[in-house]
């Protein structure tokens, strides 16, 4: 029996504990995507249509917006004919030929305000992805493209908004060639709504991916990992979201680092004959600690590679969007991931956000 499984299926107790509305807020990723689509259809990004910029620069901190930028740059960077740059401070060379996206949850952050002001004075195209208010709004030096959040959620749940704003900006650059599959944000919204519906509190744990993930993590040291840079952006988001939502301390690191630490993980595994009821610390020594569990975030077409890389590890869960695939020896696709991986990775991001909300509610009781 998984730890915490009974609590996670107590719908009434979960609802009573959710005084902050964490579960409804974490389920709004699809609504955030639709809000971005609506803003684009209203013409918010129309000035970018015929622009061929020298560079697209994303100014953001290391929070939710930064992790969203890591995901989009990892997926789009190898396939688009314009440099994509993530930075905490606006570069000194910014000018009229550049697009600057200012993304961050803190409208009072002086770095964001300074970046928006200086980019405007230098006549760059400025896109505001964070809240357009306070010092940030007052600092603007000219017209901006307003892609600020329309769906009000906690900062830790704005990952979908920032990802989709950046995707919409790149997709609006009609004069810039992008190879490979294009992102379909309307379809992404539908898939995120489907995942959120499946993770409804009324669905039992074994039919609820977010509850099952929360049960696998609760009370366990956890390492989040992936085998691609895009997956690592989601893994980092998962580790930080579990900490900010539920106080669950975990780490995100590259899958090759995890494999290298495999002998250490084997040492932490629970002995087969360990029984906490009959364990006497005076005779048997310190009680065995919960072993470290590895959560691997991957896409369905790379599941085979993820399983092969982590086959020697003792406590591993492979997280993919949708049911587990049948074992196969087929190699994953060659070449860097592209926008075709956006939907499965965003589903995993939503699943981890909802799982962190469940974990918080279990801890509140």
Please provide a written account of the structure.
The strands form two sheets. A five-stranded parallel β-sheet has the order 2-1-3-4-5, with helices on both faces. The protein folds into two domains: 5-22 and 199-272 and 288-363, Rossmann fold; 28-183, Glucose-6-phosphate isomerase like protein, domain 1 (Rossmann fold), CATH 3.40.50. It has 365 residues and is of the alpha/beta class. The protein contains 16 helices and nine strands. Helix 11 packs parallel to helix 16 (342-363). The longest helix has 22 residues, at 342-363. Strand 4 (125-128), helix 7 and strand 5 (145-146) form a beta-alpha-beta unit.
Main traits of this protein?
SIS_dom_sf; 5-stranded parallel sheet; Rossmann fold; globular; carbohydrate derivative binding; disordered N terminus; 16 helices; 365 residues; 2 domains; alpha/beta; 4-stranded parallel sheet; Phosphoglucose isomerase-like protein
Radius of gyration: 22 Å
Q: What structural category do the secondary elements indicate?
A: alpha/beta
Q: Can you identify the CATH superfamily of the largest domain?
A: Glucose-6-phosphate isomerase like protein, domain 1
For the termini, the CA-CA separation is 20 Å
Q: What's the architecture of the largest domain in CATH terms?
A: 3-Layer(aba) Sandwich
Number of domains as seen in the coordinates: 2
- At the third CATH level, what is the topology name of the largest domain? Rossmann fold
Total number of helices: 16
Give the overall form: globular
Strand content: 5-15%
Low-confidence runs: 1-5
The biggest beta sheet reads: 5 strands, parallel
């Amino acid at each position: 029996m998984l730890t915490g499984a009974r609590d996670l299926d107590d719908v009434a107790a979960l609802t009573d504990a959710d005084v902050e509305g964490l579960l409804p807020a974490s389920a709004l990723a699809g609504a955030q995507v639709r809000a971005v689509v609506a803003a684009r259809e209203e013409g918010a990004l129309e000035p970018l249509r015929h622009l061929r910029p020298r560079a697209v620069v994303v100014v953001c901190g290391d929070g939710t917006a930064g992790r969203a930028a890591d995901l989009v740059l990892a997926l789009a960077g190898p396939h688009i004919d314009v440099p994509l740059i993530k930075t905490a401070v606006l570069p000194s060379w910014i000018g009229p030929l550049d697009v600057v996206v200012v993304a961050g949850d803190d409208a009072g952050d002086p770095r964001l305000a300074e970046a928006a002001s200086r980019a405007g004075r230098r006549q760059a195209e400025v896109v505001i992805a964070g809240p357009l208010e306070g010092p940030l709004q007052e600092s603007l030096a000219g017209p901006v493209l307003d892609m600020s959040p329309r769906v009000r959620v906690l900062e830790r749940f704005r990952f979908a908004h920032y990802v989709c704003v950046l995707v919409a900006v790149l997709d609006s650059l009609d004069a810039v060639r992008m190879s490979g599959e294009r992102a379909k944000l309307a379809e992404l919204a539908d898939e995120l709504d489907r995942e959120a519906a499946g993770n409804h509190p009324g669905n039992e744990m074994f039919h609820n991916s977010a509850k099952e993930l929360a049960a696998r993590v609760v009370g366990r040291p956890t390492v989040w990992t992936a085998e691609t840079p895009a997956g690592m952006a989601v893994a980092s988001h998962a580790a930080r979201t579990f900490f900010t939502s539920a106080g669950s301390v975990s780490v995100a690191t590259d899958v090759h680092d995890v494999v290298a630490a495999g002998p250490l993980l084997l040492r932490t595994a629970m002995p087969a004959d360990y029984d906490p009821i009959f364990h006497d610390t005076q005779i048997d020594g310190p009680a065995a600690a919960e072993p470290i569990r590895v959560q691997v975030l991957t896409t369905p077409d790379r599941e085979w590679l993820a399983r092969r890389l982590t086959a020697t590890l003792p406590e591993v869960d492979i997280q993919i969007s949708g049911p587990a695939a049948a074992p196969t020896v087929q190699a994953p696709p060659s070449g860097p991931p592209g926008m075709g991986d956006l939907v499965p990775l965003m589903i995993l991001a939503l699943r981890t956000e909802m799982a962190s909300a469940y974990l918080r509610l279990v801890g509140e009781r």
